[in-house]
Amino acid sequence: MEEFFAWIGRTLGEVIRFVVDLLTGFFANLGASARSFLQELAGSLGISTSIVSLLILVVGLWMLWKAFRALTRRAIVATLVWLLLSFAVLSWLIY
Q: Is Transmembrane helix one of the keywords UniProt gives this record (predicted)?
């Protein structure tokens, strides 16, 4: 009977170790993948990889999305305003 519980304990320990190793590898690769994605995105746009530049990029893309949504509502003046603002913000980044 003692061997049975020893076997259960050993098997449970190996399963837990496998799951921990799997999750550690997954999250380590996830971080490296995200870092590579952001570096290549910034490199292809010609901007720096600082958090401020990436946040300004997100704001500029959000403004473009707002312009698209205004266009689908047929609000021409709002579309032009959002387009001009987004182009101004995005032009500050790309040099």
A: yes
